[in-house]
Amino acid sequence: MPIIETHDLRKVFRTVKRTPGALGALRTLFSREYVDRVAVSGVSMSLEEGELVGYIGPNGAGKSTTIKMLTGILVPTSGEIRVAGLVPHADRKRNARNIGVVFGQRSQLYWDLPLIESFELLRAIYGVSAERYQRNLAEFTELLELGDFLNTPVRQLSLGQRMRGDFAAAMLHDPRIVYLDEPTIGLDVLAKEAIRTFVARVNAERGTTFILTTHDLADVERLCRRIVLIDEGRIIYDGGIEAIKNQYGTHRTLVVQLTEAYPEFAVEGAEVESRSGDVVRLRFDRRALSADALIRRVTEKYCVSDVSIEEPELESIIRRIYVEGYSEPGAAAASEPVGA
Amino acid sequence: MTGVLAPYVAFAQKAFAREATYRVEVFANVGSLVLRVYLVRSLWTALYRQNAAPADIPLHAMITYATVALLMSLILEIDGTGTIREKVREGTIATDLMKPISLPLYFFSDGFGRTVFHAVTIVPSLALALLLVHVDVPSGAALAAFAISFAFGYLVNFFLNFLMNVVAFWTLETYAVQLTVRWASDLLSGQILPLAFFPGLLGAIVANLPFAAIYSTPLRIYIGELPPDAWPGAIAAQAAWLALFAGAAAVAWRSAERRVVVQGG
Questions:
Q1: C-alpha span between A184 and A216 (Å, rounded)
Q2: Distance, CA of A80 to CA of A77 (rounded, Å)
Q3: CB B19 within 8 A of CB B119
């Protein structure tokens, strides 16, 4: 049985229509004209326990609205949701016991108090037994290296330390599901890596289900096997990361380091993507031309000191989907002129 | 039962601890209070020399009234529900709604913890104040009735503040509403001036407003302006205001919560 299931979920926000100008503002006070804004439009998805799914889309696509409905703090306009057997908005407090939430942009820790005191407060809120609390605290302190600043007031922590504290805070009560909303925003490379390692480990060892919302696709690439892509309130892709990479990753880039600066550079079957000084980037379709053949063509005409091949990153694939829209496999391949 | 209340006890404890971290502010508060006690004594002594006083409150009772009112304000001026406003404006109310707790109870226990901390500071304040002024001490029965009446006044004040802050769910900026109500409350509750000073019809109206339940009723019991047989009636009136305000707060909260869950805050 899926742990999270939504069916045809919709959320429409209704706001009073505003007329511009001073007179308009006066009219707005009395008029009852409304504007409907559809934030989520027919989202159906299903997650099994222990999955780690990346939920991605551009700003305003409906990600946060979906997460708010899953946490029970927003009532859907229509459609069904079940999270661990509960309807979240009808059973907000019971649902709250099953979930943990981490927001990159705002902390749930107590600003004025030492980190450890926030943990103790959460222990009281969720009624975590002393033994389980000690065990979790010891484990998280070790994994997230919290030991140095457990007794420091939260307002004095660096962003990376605070985020690690927030992760521990969200998981002290052993939630079955954790929602991560841009958890690595603003963090340096090391802190990002610490957080990613922690999530991967909790997912593997405890079987916790994660939904990860992020703009940093490196998070997704590192952690998730499955992504759900949402745009304008609709799901446009739901499936494996490998599948979408194979489908869209028909092109590779060959980076060539030339020994001298040739005034002209052109090779049949590949397109010059960019050129700066003696480094040329060539984009080619791997189905039409093998990398080996392309390198031979280049070296026949030019003197080359180094070559390397770049795989397309998830980021560039997603960017293309945002711009062009998603098309089914087959259709994508056919619509792409070879050697373009 | 303790299991259900455990989070709220913890909230109150943390609020107490948090309040204690601002040590300089605590000392400043005690100092400022002692100064205010001295000023109040000087002011009333001067006013009484001009025969400005109503006949039934002698000067020593007036100075007692003003001093006890200042000590009460240490507790009553703590607006524990101010966090509602901050949380709504900063959007952190959403994180709180994701926890298995009752938010009105959370705000109450948080405010209560802060209050208890400030109640502790009354002791040194009073000790220092007693060096400057003489304060009458009423009978044990009157002190007990005062304590009960003060508790009701505290709760009426809490719900009044709660209602003011819940307005933040509709208009993010509540400062004007707050200020107006605070001024009205300061003047009409009997904090600055005993309500006996209001003449005729105005006095009758002011005595029957809810603000009187906050300062005036407990203070009139304390200085003996209200005789023992009038205590039950006065406290019943406070209880009625409390019931009304608590009911209004419950309705306001329910509709505020609905607004968040339907409109997304």
A1: 8
A2: 10
A3: no
**What is the DSSP code (8-state) at residue B80?**
T
For residue A128, which of A170, A95, A86, A174 has the smallest C-alpha distance? A174
Contact B10 A75 (CB under 8 A): no
Whether B158 and B81 have beta carbons less than 8 Å apart is answered as: yes
SS3 of chain A: helix, strand, coil, percent, to 5: 40, 30, 30
Q: A173 and chain B: CB distance < 8 Å anywhere?
A: no
Residue of chain B whose Cα is closest to the Cα of A112? B18
Question: From CA A183, how far away is CA A307, in angstroms rounded?
Answer: 36
Residue B172 confidence (pLDDT): 67
Nearest residue in B to A90, CA atom: B261
A4-16 and A34-47 strand pairing: antiparallel
Residues composing chain A: 340
Which position has the token pair 């003060």?
A: B150
Asked if A65's CB is within 8 angstroms of B100's CB, the reply is: no
* Interaxial angle between packed helices B82-90 and B140-166, expressed in degrees from 0 to 180 and rounded to the nearest 10: 20
Q: How far apart are alpha carbons A35 and A21 in whole angstroms?
A: 18
- A78 Cβ contact partners less than 8 Å away, ≥ 6 residues apart: A8, A9, A10
Write out the residues of chain B at the interface with chain A, using a CB-CB cutoff of 8 A. Answer: 3, 6-7, 9-11, 14, 17-18, 21, 90-92, 94-95, 97-101, 260-264
Using CA atoms, how far residue B205 sits from B157, B235, B245, in Å, is 19, 18, 19
Does A94 contact chain B (CB < 8 Å)? yes
Q: How far is Cα B50 from Cα A246, in angstroms, rounded to an integer? A: 95
Contact A112 B18 (CB under 8 A): yes
Are B98 and A99 an interchain contact pair (Cβ–Cβ within 8 Å)? Answer: yes
How confident is the model over B48-97, as pLDDT tens digits?
A: 888 766 667 888 899 999 999 999 998 888 877 888 888 887 778 888 88
Could you tell me which of B203, B190, B192, B186 has the C-alpha nearest to residue B149? B190
The per-type count for chain A, helices as H runs and strands as E runs, is 12, 13
Instruction: Assign B92 to helix, strand or coil.
Output: coil
Smallest Cβ distance to A112: which of B10, B21, B263?
A: B21
Mean pLDDT of the region B22-42: 86
Whether pLDDT at A19 is above 80: no
Distance of alpha carbon B55 from alpha carbon A18, whole angstroms: 60
Query: What confidence tens digit (pLDDT) does each residue in A230-269 have?
Result: 988 999 899 998 888 877 777 888 899 988 878 888 888 8
**Nearest CA to A52 among A194, A232, A241, A231?**
A241
- CA dist A95 and A70 (Å) reads 9
The model's pLDDT over B11-25, given as tens digits with 9 standing for 90+, comes to 999 888 888 887 788
DSSP 8-state class, residue A86: B
Q: Judged by CB atoms within 8 Å, which residues 112-151 of A form the interface with B?
A: 112-113, 117, 120-121, 124-127
How far is A313 from A318, CA to CA, in rounded Å?
Answer: 9
Best mutation site among A15, A38, A64, A68 for testing chain B: the one with the most B CBs within 10 Å? Answer: A68
Burial class (CB in 10 A: 0-12, 13-18, 19+), B66: buried
B28 and B36 Cβ atoms separated by less than 8 Å = no
